[in-house]
Amino acid sequence: MKENPIFQVRQVWVTRFDPLDENKELSNRLWTSAELETYPELSSHLLEDIVHPIECVRYAAAASMAQLIEDKGRDADQIDVVLTCLLKTYREKLER
User: Fold this and answer.
1) Model confidence over 8-64: pLDDT tens digits?
2) 9-43-89 Cα angle (round to 5)
3) Range of the domain at 46
4) pTM, full prediction
C-alpha cells in the first residue's frame, strides 16, 4: 500500500461505501477514530477509483463520490470539474 497520507484518506473514504457491511463498519470506525477529513482534491482523486477494473471498487468509489458531492454541494465549481471529467472518461470508455 502506498505511504502517502492523502492516498490513505482516499482509500478509507472509498471503503466507507464498500458493498460489504463489515468493510463499511470497519472503515467508518477507522475514519472516526483517526479523525480523518475529506480534502479539496478528493473528488478528482476518486476518478481513478471510479474506473477501477474491480467492480466493487467502482461501486464504492461512485457511492463515495455521490456522498462527497452531496456533502460539498455548495462548491459548484468543484462539482462542475468532476462532472466534466466523469463525462469525458465515460465517452472515452464508450469509444473503445
Assistant:
1) 999 999 999 999 999 999 999 999 999 999 988 888 889 889 889 999 999 999 999
2) 125
3) 5-95
4) 0.82
How many other C-beta atoms lie within 10 A of the C-beta of residue 33? 8
Grid cell listed for 42: 478528493
Please give the tally of structural domains in the chain. Answer: 1
CA 94 to chain centre: 22
Exposure letters 10-32 (e unless 16+ CB within 10 A, then b): bebbbbbbbeeeeebeebeeebe
Closest by alpha carbon to 16, among 5, 6, 29, 3? Answer: 29
Sign for the CA dihedral angle at 28, 34, 35, 40 comes to negative
